[in-house]
Amino acid sequence: MIDILKLFYTTHYNLGALAVLMVLLLIFFLSKKNFKGAIILVVILIAYNIAIYKRTEGKSWTIEIDPPAAESSGYDSFSKPQPIKMTFSATPEKWTITDEKGETHHWCWLDDMWDKFANTDVVAWIWGENASKKMMKSTETRANDAQNSN
Questions:
Q1: pLDDT tens profile 124-137
Q2: From the centroid of its chain, how far is CA 19?
Q3: 3 state SS of 42
Q4: What's the rounded Cα separation, in Å, for the pair 112 and 15?
Q5: Cα(40)–Cα(25) distance, rounded to whole angstroms?
Q6: Which of 14, 38, 42, 113 has the lowest CB atom count within 10 Å?
């Protein structure tokens, strides 16, 4: 468990910083003799680390990376090179992969969640899909009207 958390926290240091802040808050609670708050924080800290461990341990993630441009890779303009598949897992050998160029790649469940969150249409999520489409259509109509009037 410690090895996986070390791998995870060295890559995703923002979640590691959150765990360190919880530990510092725990020390503060203990220095103020707030044992009830300290017990609650210990339970939260344990649950936090177990949740990260359960989401990471024993899993693997495969992504496809687009190959370099056709000019630099030596391919002719008629054949398209296949995407490069990389598989990551929670082992020290497969946690990060370094390609031929020396670039280090990493992917795990947190990156999947972040991509899903980053691709969320907030307007559609709040007001519904139809409101989002109407808003986009009205904006496009205004833009077209402004171009036609010039």
A1: 777 766 665 666 67
A2: 18
A3: helix
A4: 15
A5: 11
A6: 14
Q: Tokens 């210990």 label which residue?
A: 42
AA letter at 109: W
Q: Read off the pTM.
A: 0.67
Q: Which of 92, 126, 125 is nearest to 106 (CA)?
A: 92
- CA angle (55, 8, 44) in 5-degree steps: 65
For 83-104, write each residue's pLDDT tens digit: 788 888 888 888 888 877 777 8
C-alpha to C-alpha distance for 67 and 126, rounded to whole angstroms: 37
Residue 101 gets which letter from DSSP?
Answer: T
Question: Residue 58 corresponds to which tokens in the numbers above?
Answer: 């024993």
Q: 63 with 107: CB under 8 angstroms?
A: yes
Q: Are strands 60-65 and 84-89 parallel, antiparallel or unpaired?
A: antiparallel
Helix, strand, coil percent content, the chain, rounded in steps of 5: 60, 10, 25
